[in-house]
Amino acid sequence: MIPTLAARSAFRASARAQAVKYSFQPHVGRFAPENVIKWVPSLALWGAGAGAAVTLFLSGVPLFQTDVLKKLPVLKEYYEDKTPDSDKPF
């Protein structure tokens, strides 16, 4: 029996596979730079949201005001106490 054209083309010779070149991929555990770079925008967005939430929720705490908010040039005047000493009860 002579194989048909379809049968012969199914088993035609293909191009030879290229040799694999191995190279070192720097990593820490399962984290490689290529994988970490994909997560940077998402982590930055969540970090900015968390920072804004912490600032909002702790803005009424006096220790947070003196240690953080009064040291920011934009917010310094907002949290600065301008009440004269004669009007303070203590």
TrEMBL record:
One of its GO terms (biological process) is mitochondrial electron transport, ubiquinol to cytochrome c. This is Cytochrome b-c1 complex subunit 10, fungi. It comes from Ceraceosorus bombacis. Keywords: Membrane, Transmembrane, Transmembrane helix. It comes from the Eukaryota. The keyword Transcription regulation does not apply. The keyword tRNA processing does not apply. One of its GO terms (cellular component) is mitochondrion. The chain crosses the membrane at residues 43-64. InterPro entries: Cytochrome_b-c1_su10_fun.
